[in-house]
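Supplementary Text 2. Reproducibility record for the structural model of the 75-residue chain.

All settings were left at their defaults, and a single model was retained for analysis rather than an ensemble. We include the record here because the model underlies the residue-level annotations in Supplementary Table 4.
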Amino acid sequence: MNKPDWEGFGMEVVTYGWPTNDIDGSELFALALMHNLIKPIAGGYNSEEHFDTEGICPEEGDPWYEYNFKTKNGN
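Retained model, structure tokens:
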């Protein structure tokens, strides 16, 4: 998987949203996917492996994504 393109992501967010427009969650999601900040998981959601921390209640096999970078807590 390609490395995250933080600069491209930041440029798109600032270009699209600055200074008066809002960016909604679906647009941020699309930008994160486009710039490799998140990556799709083959096979989709698996309740035995993935945790629904956002409470979106996915069905088995629904598209699922992971960060493509290390977070502050190492995940």
